[in-house]
């Protein structure tokens, strides 16, 4: 591993000084545009060496567009106002007003939805507004794109509303005290401003170094990612990353190294007191968390469209991190037998191996990510139980051209996310993903999971069928979502598991459309929650089906983006 890092560092340093390029990013989760480029790659219109596993993406020749926010030149040709990137200083400088985005969502009964950045899990109406500018001079670039969120955040039926027995509260807190994931963000309206998708960078050739608050997405998943996604607000970090693939005689490489700060939400649970007055919620450690990790992938020149990557992250309280090896722990042994069966400091570790294979002739792709949240003792232990502490994501995508209709396709997508523990937990429990006994905020920032939005123990099966034409997209999505399976399996052993599972079945209508300077995005989703929040009504011991435990929720999203 040390030799690989040394070779890649030398390649990076050598190529850094060859040319100066623009370093404007396309923020993770940008409505419509974020997925547009990945669809275009299936059609062979974007460089196949881009893996889409280290994001945000950056403007440049690889994306084959001058203006990352006007990829098909429809804005340039048909607009009310057209400014686009403005060059100055004989081409060494550039300035651009970034799109203004207004995103809204509504939940009729209880929180639902993820991958919405600083938006919070909440019932009722919620809105987010973002905008800003990008300026560059030589290798220096500044992107200022703050975000503001407001949520009505009314009360809803759940653990926080009371009415739970002491035993239910004890069970719930015994698991959820080890993650910062408030069921409700306070007891009234919520509003907060964030630095959002802002950064200051120095970019040379294919490499960039800087300070950033941008959301990061690692891995090939589309609906979820195991390690980093835009489910939580962006966090302050130092980054060294590629802005396009680094080409070598054996293939191309992409990568990122980060070191950042994760913060506590500041919202303790609202209902944690037993009938005898005992409070079950512990006081969290008064310290921010130091988060660091790397993501590196390789695209061999002999296998067209294939990418293989590795990620590893470390999360610890800042006050516990003292030595250089603790600030830069990338070479910390994987196997516990090499570490005296433990970590020198309380630290939450994750690693994943991922692959993506793009078939441009078939206009299709297949991908997977396999992660571990607990290291094996030695090689024999791993071979004997490779599924211990595992989670995975698997997905496929296929574009089907419509006969006689240029640039129109049917897009089929399917993805499976599996985070719950395997039967191996009966012999040796691995703990839930994103939950940690030593770092009691877990793998979160501002109270939301950094990885898969389905959360600890969450399993998802998702399928989508859509008509697409350029930036336009109309389709349907079906999903089955199991909530917090590890918690349910651990604390409800006396009740038939199939009847007590909290499972959502969701059907959504989705639309994306562009008109002149505007881009619209909308989702209308009906969600039926079976055994919502594991609340039991009319329950008789030994009964397989428990009636009156299902609720309906309407999840709606409406957004509009104005491009300059």
Number of domains: 1
Structural class: mainly beta
Q: On the 0-100 scale, what is the average pLDDT? A: 89
The description of the largest β-sheet is:
18 strands, antiparallel, barrel
Through-space gap between termini: 46 Å
**What is the share of helical residues?**
10-25%
Sheet-strand content, in percent, reads: 35-45%
Oligomer: single chain
Shape designation: globular
Name the CATH architecture.
Beta Barrel
CATH homology superfamily name: Capsule assembly protein Wzi
User: Which CATH top level class fits?
Assistant: Mainly Beta
Radius of gyration: 24 Å
By DSSP (H or I, 4+ residues per run), the number of helices equals: 8
Total DSSP E strands:
28
Q: What name is given to the CATH topology?
A: Porin
Instruction: Note poorly predicted spans.
Output: 1-21
Give the topology.
Blueprint: H1 2-16, E1 25-26, H2 33-42, E2 54-55, E3 57-58, H3 74-77, E4 86-88, E5 93-107, E6 124-137, E7 140-144, E8 147-151, H4 166-176, E9 190-194, E10 199-204, E11 207-212, E12 217-218, E13 237-242, E14 246-248, E15 251-262, E16 289-300, E17 306-317, H5 324-327, E18 348-359, E19 364-372, H6 379-384, E20 390-401, E21 409-418, E22 444-445, E23 448-449, E24 459-469, E25 472-482, H7 485-491, H8 497-500, E26 503-515, E27 518-530, E28 551-562
Antiparallel strand pairs: 1-3, 2-12, 4-5, 5-6, 5-28, 6-7, 6-8, 7-10, 8-9, 10-11, 11-13, 13-15, 14-15, 15-16, 16-17, 17-18, 18-19, 19-20, 20-21, 21-24, 22-23, 24-25, 25-26, 26-27, 27-28
């Amino acid at each position: 591993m040390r030799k690989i890092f040394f070779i890649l560092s030398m390649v990076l340093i050598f190529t850094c000084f060859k040319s100066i390029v623009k370093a404007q990013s396309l923020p993770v989760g940008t409505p419509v545009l974020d997925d547009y480029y990945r669809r275009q790659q299936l059609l062979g219109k974007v460089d196949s060496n881009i893996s889409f596993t280290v994001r945000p993406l950056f403007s440049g020749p690889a994306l084959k567009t001058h203006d990352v926010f006007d990829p098909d030149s429809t804005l340039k040709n048909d607009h009310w106002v057209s400014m686009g990137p403005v060059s100055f200083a004989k081409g060494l400088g550039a300035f651009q007003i970034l799109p203004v985005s207004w995103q809204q969502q509504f939940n009729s009964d209880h929180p639902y939805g993820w991958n919405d950045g600083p938006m919070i899990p909440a019932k009722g109406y919620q809105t987010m507004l973002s905008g800003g500018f990008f300026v560059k001079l030589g290798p220096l670039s500044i992107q200022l794109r703050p975000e503001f969120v407001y949520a009505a955040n009314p009360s809803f039926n759940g653990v926080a509303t009371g009415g739970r027995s002491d035993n239910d509260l004890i069970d719930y807190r015994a698991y959820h005290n080890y993650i910062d994931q408030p069921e409700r963000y306070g007891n009234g309206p919520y509003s907060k401003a964030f630095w959002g998708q802002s950064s200051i960078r120095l970019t040379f050739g294919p490499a960039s170094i800087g300070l950033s608050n941008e959301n990061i997405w690692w891995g090939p998943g589309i609906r979820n990612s195991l390690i980093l996604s835009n489910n939580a607000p962006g966090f302050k970090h130092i980054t060294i990353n590629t802005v396009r693939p680094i080409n070598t005689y054996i293939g191309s490489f992409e990568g990122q190294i980060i070191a950042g700060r994760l913060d506590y939400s500041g919202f303790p649970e609202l209902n944690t007191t037993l009938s005898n007055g005992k409070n079950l919620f512990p006081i969290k450690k008064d310290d921010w968390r130091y988060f660091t990790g790397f993501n590196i992938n390789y695209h061999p020149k002999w296998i067209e469209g294939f990418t293989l990557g590795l990620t590893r992250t470390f999360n610890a309280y800042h006050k516990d991190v003292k030595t250089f090896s603790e600030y830069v722990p990338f070479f910390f042994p994987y196997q516990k037998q090499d570490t005296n069966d433990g970590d020198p400091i309380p630290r939450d570790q994750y690693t994943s191996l991922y692959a993506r294979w793009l078939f441009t002739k078939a206009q299709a792709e297949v991908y997977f990510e396999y992660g571990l949240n607990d290291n094996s003792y030695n090689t024999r232990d791993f071979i004997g139980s490779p599924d211990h502490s595992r989670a995975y994501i698997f997905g496929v995508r296929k574009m089907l051209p419509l006969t006689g209709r240029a640039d129109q396709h049917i897009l089929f997508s399917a993805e499976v996310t599996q985070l719950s523990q395997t039967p191996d937990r009966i012999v040796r429990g691995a703990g839930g993903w994103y939950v940690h006994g030593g770092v009691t905020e877990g793998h979160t920032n501002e109270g939301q999971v950094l990885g898969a939005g389905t959360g600890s123990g969450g399993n998802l099966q998702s399928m989508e069928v859509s008509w697409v034409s350029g930036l336009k997209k109309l389709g349907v999505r079906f999903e089955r979502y199991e909530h917090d399976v590890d918690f349910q399996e651990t604390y409800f052993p006396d009740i038939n598991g199939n009847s007590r599972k909290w499972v959502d079945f969701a059907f959504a209508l989705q639309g994306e459309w562009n008109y002149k300077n505007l881009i619209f995005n909308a989702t209308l989703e009906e969600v039926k929650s079976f055994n919502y929040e594991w609340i039991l009504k009319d329950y008789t011991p030994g009964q397989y089906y428990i009636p009156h435990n299902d609720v309906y929720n309407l999840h709606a999203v409406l957004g509009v983006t104005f491009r300059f």
